[in-house]
Amino acid sequence: MGVAARIVLYAPNDYIAKWACSRAFLRIAQLEETMSDYRSDSELMWLCREGHLAPVRVSNDLFFVLRKALELSQRSNGAFDITVGPFVSLWRRARKTKQMPTENELNEAKKLVGWQKVQLDDSNQTVKLAVAGMKLDLGGIAKGYAADCALKVIKKFGISRALIELGGDIVLGDPPPDRKGWRIGILDEKGKPKKVLELANCAVSTSGSTEQFIEIDGRRYAHIIDPKTGLGLTKLVLVTVIAKDGITADSLATALCVLGEKEGRKLAETYGSIAFFQEKSLD
Ligand code: ADP
Ligand code: MG
């Protein structure tokens, strides 16, 4: 998933700690194999190739993530959209060539984008894609889910005091012994600590345009894409979300970057989540 994974836990002994961690890392690796868009043999890539021909039956993990992603697409009015893959490809190319995609390329990509083009059948656990050539991108949701799954694995070993971190996505179990929570620092856009929160049994995700961006003709375009334009966000934005689990926090943080503070706060509330915004227009 392109990030370092870190697990912190309190276990009765070293042996159980190592065993639990190695199983949790295996689970993360397995999810990466399922949902990566870099590996051509991942289940996700196979779905993208075959999904327009007939409904494809997929694994529990993939179905669950797709269901959650589409639910958020609907609730965010399309701000979160896993079908942005073709736009992401253009963005990645632009990063290499330092050239903007052409109007024509954006229009061609647009034909393959739109969350309504992914149709799920809950009773058969199948997925149908409306057109050929679609590219689903779970980069804004899979890490949070993987962290949730890792914590579940750890809990099976009888360990509840644990922290899982996958890049900007953190999932928390019970707090360390004799503490009310895990100390999580919320950073400002320069990476300086803004405040420290003590949290447990929830998830914290940060998304934004401050770390990954391309600069073309003096303008910054973030790796988070506005599905309406197909272009990376041009505003300076950093959003931290606290939610009940990793899959919610991760995807919501990405969605809120696109939506902006006013709309974003409203949406976060409907998820019972708290959001911290740092936003600045660069126009
Ligand atoms: P990071 O991966 O840096 O932690 P995010 O969780 O915000 O950041 O996810 C960003 C990734 O999500 C992008 O690299 C891309 O793969 C995907 N993505 C970009 N724009 C959107 C969007 N509007 N909706 C859903 N996923 C997106
Ligand atoms: Mg995210």
Structural features, described:
It is a single chain. With 283 residues, this protein is of the alpha+beta class. The protein has a single domain, classed as ApbE-like domains (T-fold, Roll). It is built from 8 helices and 15 strands. The longest helix is centred in the N-terminal third of the chain and has 22 residues, at 14-35. The model has no long low-confidence stretch (mean pLDDT 95). The structure holds adenosine-5'-diphosphate and magnesium ion. Adenosine-5'-diphosphate binds at residues 80-82, 84, 88, 137, 139-140, 167-168, 207, 212, 223-225, 227, 250, 253-254, 258. Magnesium ion binds at residues 140, 205, 207, 250-251, 253-254.
In this entry the ligands are:
adenosine-5'-diphosphate, magnesium ion
List segments where confidence is low: pLDDT < 50 over at least 5 consecutive residues: none
Number of domains: 1
Task: Output the number of helix runs.
Answer: 8
Number of strands: 15
Based on secondary structure, the structural category is alpha+beta
| C-alpha end-to-end distance | 32 Å
| Proportion in helices | 25-40%
The CATH topology assignment is: T-fold
- Radius of gyration (Å): 19 Å
Give me the CATH superfamily.
ApbE-like domains
Largest beta sheet: what is the strand line-up?
1-5-6-9-14-15
Query: Approximately what portion of the residues adopt beta-strand conformation?
Result: 25-35%
Per CATH, the class reads Alpha Beta
Shape call: globular
SSE ordering: EHHEHHHEEHEEEEEEEEEEHHE
Global mean pLDDT: 95
**In this structure, how is the largest beta sheet organized?**
6 strands, antiparallel
CATH A-level architecture: Roll
